Amino acid sequence: MAVIRFIDFVLDLVSMDGQFTFTLGSQDSAKWSEGADLDAYPSVSYSYGEKQDTVELVCSSDGINLFGALGENPINTYRFILRHKCACWNGCEGK
């Protein structure tokens, strides 16, 4: 098992014991996508070397917050989901 963290403007995958770090993306590579159509979520993508990462942003109006890994497919292409009220189009209004 591992944890994912955003530290020093880098997306890292870190082993639970903290001994191993695998860098997935750098902040300076961040790119915004509003979604290709009404069925696609907006997202932020990152890269680091051959690695490509996409974080899908899902609006949560019910108070359920989630950050999870959706997998690696193909190799070096990672997908994540962030479900939070701040992913809504009106942002974090009323927080």
Can you give a write-up of this model?
- The protein is mostly beta strands and 95 residues long.
- The protein has a domain at 28-87.
- It is 0% helix and 54% strand.
- The protein has no helices and eight strands.
- The strands form two sheets. Strands 4-5-6-8-7 form a five-stranded mixed sheet, with no helix packed on it.
- A hairpin with a 2-residue loop joins strand 5 and strand 6 (51-59).
Secondary structure layout plus pairing:
Elements: E1 2-7, E2 10-15, E3 21-26, E4 31-33, E5 43-48, E6 51-59, E7 66-72, E8 77-84
Parallel strand pairs: 6-8
Antiparallel strand pairs: 1-2, 2-3, 4-5, 5-6, 7-8
In short:
The protein is mainly β and 95 residues long. The protein is 0% helix and 54% strand.
Class based on secondary structure composition and strand pairing: mainly beta
The whole-number mean of residue pLDDT values reads: 82
Reading the helices and strands in chain order gives EEEEEEEE
Strand order of the largest sheet: 4-5-6-8-7
Strand content: over 45%
Could you estimate the helical fraction of the residues in percent? Answer: under 10%
Unreliable spans are none
The gross shape turns out to be globular
Distance between the termini: 32 Å
User: Quaternary status of these chains?
Assistant: single chain
- Summarize the main sheet: 5 strands, mixed
List the defining traits of the structure above.
95 residues, mainly beta, 5-stranded mixed beta sheet, 3-stranded antiparallel beta sheet, 8 strands
